[in-house]
Amino acid sequence: MRVVVATGNAGKVREIAEALGNLEAGGLGWQLEALNGLPLPEETGTTYEENAALKACAAAITTGLPALADDSGLEVAALNGQPGVYSARFGNRANDTERNVYLLEKLRGAADRRAKFVSVVILAYPDGHLETYRGELPGTLLEGPRGENGFGYDPLFVPDGETRTLAEMTVAEKRAISHRGRALAALMQAHEGGRPAPEVSQVE
Predict the structure, then answer these.
(1) Average pLDDT, the chain
(2) Is 46 annotated as contributing to ligand binding?
(3) According to the model, what pLDDT value does residue 27 have?
């Protein structure tokens, strides 16, 4: 089945493609396609589910194909769950490095450095049907970045049970435990590890 990945984030596309894999590797075997410059709606939702649905539905309607989108964020205990759905634009900072610096400034002197990553993945069909999957990854935030892999807040985040940050792990290691990986694993389980999704009507 052809599925559009409704994101402009190359890191997310790579993670999703690696997670879903191919049939020979026990994956779904879907043919994933990038948006190729098609615009996505502004993320105006107040929840991960709303933002993911906005993107997935827009892509499904525009392309006439099933579309996969996710919205994810970092929820920090000492900041009452911030930045949450605003993680990608936290503090109106322009890039990952600036957002990480801003987060560290906000946490300076904080005794509680607990946090969790949350991801909601939605598969939208052109006929309006939606499938929703959620994954979470709890952990602790460091006082400085470590690692060169990953993206976003990965260099600051040490998952529970680990001594390395997400940015110190390989793509495969991160995928095995990540919030997005867990949401995608739920999607794969729902489709029985390889069975294509139901046939869907196409937008005229």
Answers:
(1) 87
(2) no
(3) 62
**What whole-number distance in Å separates Cα of residue 124 and Cα of residue 38?**
16
Whole-number percent of the chain with pLDDT over 90: 63
- Give the pLDDT of residue 61: 93
Q: How many CA atoms lie within 13 A of 116 on its CB side?
A: 11
Give the per-residue pLDDT at 32. 82
Residues 71, 96, 112, 127: which is the catalytic one? 71
For residue 87, CA distances in Å to 37, 72, 95, 132 come to 23, 8, 11, 20
| Annotated catalytic residue 71 | yes
* Whole-number Å distance between alpha carbons of 159 and 146: 13
Decide if pLDDT at 129 tops 70: yes
pLDDT confidence of residue 43: 87
Write down the residue that tokens 């792990």 correspond to: 169
- CA dist., res. 106 & res. 64, Å (int): 43
Residue 179 annotated as lining a ligand binding site: yes
Q: Does 12 show up as a binding residue in the annotation? A: yes
Q: Is 152 annotated as a binding residue?
A: yes
Q: Say which CATH topology domain 2-191 has.
A: Maf protein (3.90.950)
Spell out the domain ranges in the chain: 2-191
Q: Write the CB contacts of 37 (distance below 8 Å, at least 6 apart in sequence).
A: none
Q: Is this prediction's pTM over 0.70?
A: yes
Distance CA 97, CA 141 (A): 15
Beta strand 114-124 with 130-141: parallel, antiparallel or unpaired? antiparallel
55 is in an annotated binding site: no
